[in-house]
């Protein structure tokens, strides 16, 4: 996908235009896609355009979405000074191209989804007086959101504590992280059938996000013996392509019933089948865990400078919905810490039930719908949502 080549473009037709800006990771794109689908559901005539990055993951995700998308010639910021001239040229050029696009077809709203690709479209919209918003699922905002958050019309956050980073935000809404409606629709039986799991066993879900997590995989290979000792549990492990065979062999050697996959597109069913999760602490993952009420042991990604996954995880731990293991990278150290927390949990269904209830109290499965409704109310006075909202207000 080149800087100017669209995945599909069908703009300049009737209907309000909503532009989602950003990408580079699934964590940026999936919440935005959930909101986009809700906008289209509530206002079928709405047009959606994603201005994304040139990373392959953006094409992979957006090609399947059914929405228009176009990559920008933007670059991530580098701390190496000799890269700054190229970064500045690309950044300014992206702003100019967004400005031209918006002058030709003025959006009703431009929504920053996070990442370096969100900055030029939102800045162009601000200069043209177009309504703007950002989605901020992580507790700690990223660089782009920190720069833009005090200037946009709306900040949609997952956690109330994130307000401290946006003290001047005109409209701050802690409404949760948008997720797919399917997380509320899947049931345990669906998951057991989908993955060929045994109904008589309880299920431990292990996931390191879409590419797997090497440190989690290595630790679980060492923990397999403990799982066999406790008994009564099976494992659904999403290990990534590189480690799947080795992880599968470790469970087989320990005599632990396990389904090991590189990846699945059926995460709602995977979580519905599970009784406990061992996971990273990405914002979308935590929104999904809380929406389905799944207790968890979280190993936040250890290499982020701002440790934002740790801050995410602390919200769940404070509520009694999760435990945290600090990822020390060393498989032996991690395995010992995981075993110390996991062993008593596996033997304590009462505690798991309490954690499940705590997780569900944090869940905001309606986040995408609420955000979409707000965007339509603010930008499309003639939409069905706006008309319904006005009628409701007049009746009070």
Determine the CATH topology of the largest domain.
Rossmann fold
Instruction: Compute the CA-based radius of gyration.
Output: 22 Å
Give the overall shape, derived from the CA principal axes. Answer: globular
Q: Name the poorly predicted regions.
A: 1-9, 390-396
Order of helices and strands: EEHEHEHEHEHEEHHEHEHEHEHEHEHHHH
Count of discrete domains: 2
Count of helical stretches: 16
Query: Please, what is the average pLDDT?
Result: 91
Protein structure class = alpha/beta
Largest sheet: 8 strands, mixed
Strand order of the largest sheet: 1-4-3-2-5-6-7-8
CATH superfamily of the largest domain: Glycogen Phosphorylase B
CATH hierarchy class name of the largest domain: Alpha Beta
Give the key terms.
Rossmann fold; 396 residues; single chain; alpha/beta; globular; 2 domains
Short note summarizing the structure:
This protein has helices at residues 26-42, 56-62, 84-104, 119-128, 143-148, 182-185, 188-195, 214-230, 240-254, 267-273, 283-292, 308-318, 331-346, 349-362, 367-379, 384-395, and strands spanning 6-8, 17-22, 47-52, 68-71, 109-114, 132-136, 154-157, 172-174, 202-207, 233-238, 258-261, 276-279, 296-298, 322-324. It has 396 residues and is of the alpha/beta class.
């Amino acid at each position: 996908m080149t800087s100017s080549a669209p995945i599909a473009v069908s703009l300049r037709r009737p209907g309000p235009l909503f532009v989602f800006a950003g990408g580079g990771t699934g964590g940026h794109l999936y919440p935005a896609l959930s909101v986009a689908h809700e906008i289209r559901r509530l206002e079928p005539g709405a047009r959606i355009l994603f201005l994304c990055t040139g990373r392959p993951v953006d094409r992979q995700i957006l090609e399947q979405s059914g929405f228009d998308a176009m990559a920008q010639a933007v670059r991530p910021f580098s701390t190496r000074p000799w890269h700054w001239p190229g970064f500045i040229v690309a950044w300014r050029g992206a702003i100019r191209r967004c400005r031209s696009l918006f002058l030709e077809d003025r959006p009703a709203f431009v929504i920053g989804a996070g990442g370096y690709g969100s900055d030029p479209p939102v800045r162009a919209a601000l200069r043209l007086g177009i309504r703007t918003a950002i989605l901020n699922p992580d507790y700690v905002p990223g660089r782009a959101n920190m720069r833009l958050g005090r200037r946009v019309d709306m900040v949609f956050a997952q956690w109330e504590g994130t307000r401290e980073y946006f003290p001047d935000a005109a409209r701050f809404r802690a409404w949760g992280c948008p997720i797919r409606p399917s997380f509320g629709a899947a049931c345990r039986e669906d998951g057991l059938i989908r993955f060929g799991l045994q109904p008589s066993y309880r299920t431990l879900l292990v996931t390191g996000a879409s590419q797997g997590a090497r440190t989690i995989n290595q630790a679980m290979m060492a923990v397999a013996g403990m799982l066999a000792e406790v008994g009564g549990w099976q494992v659904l492990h999403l290990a990534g392509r590189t480690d799947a065979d080795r992880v599968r062999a470790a469970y087989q050697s320990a005599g632990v019933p396990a389904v090991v996959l590189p990846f699945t597109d059926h995460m709602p069913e995977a979580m519905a089948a599970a009784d406990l999760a061992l996971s990273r602490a990405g914002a979308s993952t935590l929104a999904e865990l809380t929406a389905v009420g799944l207790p968890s042991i979280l190993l936040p990604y250890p290499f982020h400078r701002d440790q934002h996954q740790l801050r995410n995880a602390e919200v769940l731990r404070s509520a009694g919905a999760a435990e945290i293991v600090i990822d020390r990278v060393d498989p032996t150290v991690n395995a010992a810490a995981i075993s110390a927390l996991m062993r008593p949990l596996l033997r304590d269904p009462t505690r798991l039930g309490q954690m499940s209830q705590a997780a569900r109290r944090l869940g905001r499965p309606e986040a995408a719908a609420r955000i979409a409704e707000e965007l339509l109310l603010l930008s499309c006075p003639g939409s069905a949502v706006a008309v319904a909202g006005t009628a409701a207000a007049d009746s009070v």
